[in-house]
Automatic annotation (TrEMBL):
The keyword Ligase does not apply. The keyword Transport applies. Residues 2-227 form the ABC transporter domain. SUPFAM superfamilies: P-loop containing nucleoside triphosphate hydrolases. GO terms for molecular function: ATP binding; ATP hydrolysis activity. Pfam families: ABC_tran. It comes from the Bacteria. Keywords: ATP-binding, Nucleotide-binding, Transport. InterPro entries: AAA+_ATPase (IPR003593), ABC_transporter-like_ATP-bd (IPR003439), ABC_Transporter_VariousFunc (IPR051782), P-loop_NTPase (IPR027417). This is ABC transporter ATP-binding protein. PANTHER family: ABC TRANSPORTER ATP-BINDING COMPONENT (PTHR42939:SF3), ABC TRANSPORTER ATP-BINDING PROTEIN ALBC-RELATED (PTHR42939).
Length: 283
């Protein structure tokens, strides 16, 4: 679906360098703190901004060569974009129908009713959560093959975030050939949703892993000074100095459990991987 090779986008005080891939039928997550380059990557891929180096292939084409039918296959949610606040929901329905031949009018209206989105109220009077859900409804109700979701849950309460994530799961269940690229700085949103995860830090991809492998095989070793000296570091990805000694991130948790029974080896999670990969020392 999407392949990015050596993409470089330069600003005066920031450079994005990115290579990644989104496979057909997969949900791929992009996680990183605010300002790490997530939105720049999305805009580059979608052809909204130019880039200096590298190649991007979306549906087999470069962004500048995308055809009308390619864009009809995409559902897009960008954090700062949205519908004009003076419009009402009933006003945007014919616009979406004109833009997308496969727009599912009845499903869109049904979703608005289910989630209490009024059709006769100006969008600028909506809450943040209502606006976020409306953008997702518009993205998923025209038979899109590929969703681009840049921070779709930012600023939402827990219940609203869960509503949005459930809609994305339902979208994938309807057709297993669909794909999603979703960015967030909220690890729990991506941990229970994605098939694989990329981590971006200061404009560079610093980590990529299958989500099941991360949750099942990654771990955090807690070692004092003497334990750290004799620790086999072949499978250690990152180390951070602690008051008690060292925290060590590994992708081979079982190996250290079996060979170092005297050490604490905790099961890893996405938050710990983020902390260790962005704040630890690589080996």
């Amino acid at each position: 679906m999407l392949e990015i090779n050596g993409l470089v986008k330069r600003y005066k005080d920031f450079t994005l360098e990115c290579s990644m891939k989104v496979e057909k039928g997969c949900i791929t997550g992009l996680i990183g703190e605010n300002g790490s380059g997530k939105s720049t990557m999305f805009k580059s891929v979608l052809g909204l901004i130019s880039y200096e180096e590298g190649e991007v292939s979306l549906f087999g084409r470069a962004p500048a060569r995308l055809q009308k039918e390619d864009r009809e296959r995409m559902g897009i949610v960008l954090g700062e974009s949205g519908f004009s606040g003076y419009l009402k929901v009933k006003d945007i329905i014919p616009v979406l129908a004109a833009m997308y031949p496969k727009f599912e009018r009845e499903r869109f209206i049904k979703l608005c009713g289910k989630f209490s989105i009024p059709q006769d109220k100006a969008i600028n009077e909506f809450s943040t959560g209502m606006k976020a859900k409306l953008k997702v409804f518009a993205a998923i109700t025209h038979g899109a093959d590929f969703l681009f979701m840049d921070e779709p849950t930012t600023g939402l309460d827990v219940m609203t975030r869960n509503d949005v994530l459930d809609l994305l799961r339902e979208y994938m269940e309807q057709d297993n050939s669909r794909s999603i690229l979703i960015s967030s700085h909220i690890s729990s949103d991506l941990e229970g949703l994605c098939d694989d995860i990329y981590m971006i830090h200061e404009g560079r991809i610093i980590f990529h892993e299958d989500m099941d492998k991360l949750l099942n095989e990654y771990g955090l070793i807690k070692a004092d000074e003497e334990q750290f000296k004799r620790l086999d570091k072949e499978h250690i990805l990152s180390v951070r100095k602690e008051n008690f000694g060292y925290s060590c991130l590994t992708g081979q948790r079982r190996y250290y459990i079996e060979n170092y029974p005297d050490m604490v080896v905790e099961k890893g999670n996405l938050d710990e991987v983020i902390t260790m990969m962005s704040g630890g020392r690589r080996l």
